[in-house]
Amino acid sequence: QTVLQGVILLPLRLISITFLLLLAWLSASIATFCQPGRGVLPLQGWRRRMVQTTLSGLTRVAYFVMGFQVKVKGKVASLSEAPIFVAAPHSSFFDGIVCALTGMPSIVSRAENLSTPVFGTILRSLQPVVVSRQDHDSRKNTVAEITRRALSRGQWPQVI
């Protein structure tokens, strides 16, 4: 009986997750289409709300479809309370749960991730702080960019 459930549930879950991923890509594409100051200026207005609400909701639904149910105890710190949100250890796809629960903050990511099909578009809509492994000054530049965003008084989303 368990094997039969797996044979039925696995394809349904894969189809659902693929559909949710394509919806997330579409939302990210719309939010960043003809974006003024692409990557240099923060998303504002409907673009920022669309990324935060749509992608957060779709990510939560995707994790639910995968079988994860997350309950938050306490209150998530707001942007004004904590412009930098630290989550550890950040070594797996579970980081997406933290991102979804905190309203899709900016993340720190490798530059190579932006060129990944579908995921690169979604990642770009989160306006990540990009780290280049080929640039020797990348570490210093990353710290400076995180500091600049943290001191922007709410213009940029939280950085995780």
Explain what the structure shows.
This protein has one domain (1-151). It is globular and about 55 Å long. The chain has 5 helices and 2 strands. The chain has helices at residues 2-32, 45-65, 95-101, 119-125, 138-150, and strands at residues 108-110, 129-131. Strands 1-2 form a two-stranded parallel sheet. The model has no long low-confidence stretch (mean pLDDT 85). It is mainly alpha-helical and 160 residues long.
How many distinct folded domains? 1
Low-confidence stretches: none
Helix count? 5
User: Rg to the nearest angstrom?
Assistant: 17 Å
> Biggest sheet, in brief?
2 strands, parallel
Shape: globular
Helix content: 40-55%
Q: Return the average pLDDT rounded to an integer.
A: 85
Q: How far is the first residue's CA from the last residue's CA?
A: 42 Å
Output the helix-strand order. Answer: HHHEHEH
Strand proportion: under 5%
Order of adjacent strands in the largest pleated sheet: 1-2
Count the strands? 2
Task: Assign the structural class, choosing from mainly alpha, mainly beta, alpha/beta, alpha+beta, or little secondary structure.
Answer: mainly alpha
GO biological process, one term: lipid metabolic process
Family: Belongs to the 1-acyl-sn-glycerol-3-phosphate acyltransferase family.
Protein name: PCAT2 acyltransferase
Domain Phospholipid/glycerol acyltransferase: 70-156
